[in-house]
Amino acid sequence: xxxxxxxxxxxxxxxxxxxxxxxxxxxxxxxxxxxxxxxxxxxxxxxxxxxxxxxxxxxxxxxxxxxxxxxxxxxxxxxxxxxxxxxxxxxxxxxxxxxxxxxxxxxxxxxxxxxxxxxxxxxxxxxxxxxxxxxxxxxxxxxxxxxxxxxxxxxxxxxxxxxxxxxxxxxxxxxxxxxx
Length: 180
Known about the structure:
Blueprint: H1 4-19, E1 30-35, H2 49-67, H3 69-76, E2 79-89, E3 98-108, E4 113-121, E5 124-137, E6 140-141, H4 144-150, H5 162-173
Antiparallel strand pairs: 1-3, 2-5, 3-4, 4-5, 5-6
């Protein structure tokens, strides 16, 4: 089941942080803390891989609200989309572990915003995800220049380099499944 209560709580907490003046610049790392719950379980009594991806959504939500993107999404009637992702798992998250989730923008190109997220338990990385995300209007991805201008960051440049650029390039070579 989708974690609707956690989602609502994340939005409320982030909005409260903004109200207190604890905003987050786009160039910084957002951080939230949560606990593993029984609803996150798989048959090995650890956090389910699919749940990890779902909970990463909470980190992106907090990041969007605290950076002001959430406000612009409402004002402009924009939406968000994930157009691709890759994830690595390094350490299991076990029952009732306290998890620190970090979210940051690692690259921006003409159309996409590349977000890196990671989960940490007791100072050790457990998983890391790289996502290709976009802002949509009328169901279509808009140029990042419009998004950055709405956030007052029109001159901010963060071109893809290193592993992000390599992922973008290798993803372009990936074939789609054949149509039957």
